[in-house]
């Protein structure tokens, strides 16, 4: 229960503070229309593209990008340090992270170890902190992912990336500190071999895994956090104790995007590999019926829920709750998204109407960093930075007395 109840606890604190501020919190709004192409107050701006050359040795791949983004990466790593030091003021924890963590975790398989070492050397940020920044996304990523199929069998995939809960609230402009600091770090990546695209991803500079990406013509993949009974904590402890047969979830997604060559192969690996933390994989293919939500615990797949035109199941939606359970009553992004998809209808589904769904509160919320839209068969991949001006859940106007304990940074 630890993972799930921790999420509920955090959301409850946010909700209580919001509810205290306003008697009737504006959790929801009518389904948005005509928000695409993005403009107005919920659109922060475009996301820059960078090429990652897989023909280079892993240590060198991130050099150009990280040189440019080093200042922004230092800002966020310092925020995370401030949070840790606020809880344990002696500075002991960061000392362990800097001095012991790389040794405790040992070598990461594949290119990840060398890539993180390269990033550490370019920025001068200790390797332990770069590793922590990478592990961070294994927890506390709260997202919405959608795959749709239109009447002609054409698939589309969209997602909101929500991140930054509980790491400090900025009372000056009602934003989450880390959510805001992630916006300048958000990048589109074109991973190439032989000067040809292998896959594309939207990510945060300094993170070497993949949570959002597609392989043009073949498949698309997003990862949502799953807070469950045997959470990722156990996996990390096992890893530290030397049992290293499981994969980090952000790393397995990247490996699948980099090296799988079909929807079926990707699905097979994502359902069968041992994982360090529970997760939802939302995987889309290139033809009718190829779209599913894979609900994973660490050892096995619990459920694979697929598109099914015979049963009129023309979309799948995943937030951060098991399909067979009710979402936490204060965080019902799932029914909001489904209601708006129902409203849109299969006849009118398109990248622009999916953007409308992902722009409707509370699917769009204070934690939303970016929205990604993917069309695998047309090779379209678009990411937009988002804002959620007040009134907006997560939370709208937090009174100072409640905000102060959360206001770690500013
Ligand atoms: C809120 O303030 C922070 C810190 O000054 C800034 O970085 C961020 O861009 C602001 N966000 C919005 C939505 O105004
Ligand atoms: C990739 O393109 C660059 C410039 O266009 C060229 O110099 C380089 O040789 C190419 N590399 C490969 C592996 O084809
Ligand atoms: C993909 O496969 C190649 C060749 O086996 C391997 O070197 C590389 O590390 C793999 N990539 C990832 C991200 O696992
Ligand atoms: C769809 O994916 C399959 C592999 O799963 C591939 O063989 C096929 O060429 C792809 N179709 C198109 C139109 O790209
Ligand atoms: C959406 O439509 C489906 C199929 O008609 C229905 O089962 C479901 O309850 C609807 N969901 C919402 C949230 O309106």
Q: What's the number of extended β-strand segments? A: 16
Strand content: 15-25%
Radius of gyration: 20 Å
The profile of the biggest β sheet is:
8 strands, mixed
CATH first level: which class?
Alpha Beta
What's the CATH topology label? Penicillin V Acylase, Chain A
Q: What small molecules are bound in this structure?
A: 2-acetamido-2-deoxy-beta-D-glucopyranose
| Average pLDDT taken over every residue | 88
Indicate the structural class. Answer: alpha+beta
Give the distance, in angstroms, between the N- and C-terminal Cα atoms: 33 Å
Number of domains: 1
State the CATH architecture. Answer: 4-Layer Sandwich
What percent of the residues sit in helical stretches (DSSP H or I)? 25-40%
Strand order of the largest sheet: 2-7-8-9-10-11-12-13
What is the approximate shape? globular
Order of helices and strands: HEEHHHHHEEEEHEEEEHHHEEEEHHEEH
Query: Which stretches are low in confidence, meaning pLDDT under 50 for 5 or more residues running?
Result: 18-26, 395-410
Active site: 143
GO molecular function: fatty acid amide hydrolase activity; N-acylsphingosine amidohydrolase activity
Keywords: Disulfide bond, Glycoprotein, Hydrolase, Lipid metabolism, Lysosome, Secreted, Signal, Sphingolipid metabolism
Domain Choloylglycine hydrolase/NAAA C-terminal: 143-334, 337-384
